[in-house]
Write a structure and sequence with these properties.
The chain contains no helices and 18 strands. The protein is mainly β.
Length: 270
């Protein structure tokens, strides 16, 4: 899905915000939100200038020109853009589509992360907006059979101890005859300041496929607790992408005891 023409993708969104104490990296005032394809989250590309513009559900926007690309942070997996103005810095990370991506070669779906950091001296205002977008499945979605997908998960977790980048494993299956989906997440965080790892835990998800359009949504249930004994719960929303739904993607939003985790899962059919 390389972008060569100007285009705007309405996106699924999942956002987490927090106030981080500079001295020790702890976080407070954690909040999260999610948005479906009609919720105002989008990614636009201008072929004339080569610029990407991201928009969040609240109407905030940021534009990243080719000159703001960070070559040292970009690689075959992601392309990273950075810019600063006053006490605020913005970063856009785009997962690269195409066969050369070593993590997963995707043709119809991708995702990005827009990070906003406001320097308030002793504290930092931090927000991460996940955007999932692509070329949606055609209207004649399958009504029989089932499919499984190889997936990867990316996310962010904010809790009183601080902000953690999330990784781990995931799975996704679809039963087109019953119009149901099932997913699992096994999530581990890495503190962005100290590098210390922390287990968020395992989640099982179940949901339904819309009658038309290839969208789906469901709930996520914690299988046990996180490493500190906290229980999280939440939801996911996504869609199938490509003419026959060869690929899928969803965003998720989990909350529990002063913390929140958001992220994206993308995958391709086996």
């Amino acid at each position: 899905m390389p972008l060569v023409h100007s285009e705007t993708f309405q996106a699924l969104g999942a956002r987490v915000g927090s106030t981080v104490t500079r001295a020790d990296g702890t976080a407070s005032a954690v909040s999260s939100s999610s948005a479906d394809f009609s919720g105002g989250v989008s990614l636009s590309y201008d072929s004339t200038t080569g610029a990407y513009t991201v928009r969040e559900a609240g109407g905030g926007t940021a534009t990243f020109l080719p000159a703001s690309k960070n070559p040292s942070a970009s690689d075959a997996t992601v392309t990273v853009y950075n810019k600063a103005s006053g006490n605020r810095t913005d970063q856009l990370v785009l997962f690269n589509p195409g066969a050369s991506n070593p993590k997963m070669a995707l043709s119809y779906v991708s995702y990005g992360i827009w990070q906003q950091v406001t320097d308030n001296g002793a504290t930092l205002g931090v927000a991460q907006q996940y955007l999932l977008y692509g070329i949606r499945q055609a209207a004649d979605q399958p009504s029989t059979g089932s499919a499984s997908y190889t997936t990867l998960v990316d996310g962010l977790w904010a809790n009183p101890d601080g902000v953690y980048s999330l990784g781990g494993t995931s799975s996704f299956t679809a039963n087109f005859a019953a119009k149901t989906v099932a997913t699992t997440l096994d999530l581990v965080g890495k503190h962005v300041s100290t590098g210390v790892s922390k287990t968020l835990g395992q989640f099982n998800g179940s949901g339904t496929i819309a009658t038309l359009g290839g969208g789906f949504s469901g709930t996520l249930t914690h299988q046990g607790t996180d490493i500190d004994g906290n229980i999280y719960s939440g939801n996911f929303a996504g869609a199938f992408f490509g003419p026959q739904g060869q690929e899928m993607g969803y965003t998720f939003n989990l909350t529990g005891n002063g913390g929140a985790a958001v992220g994206a899962v993308v995958g391709k059919s086996n």
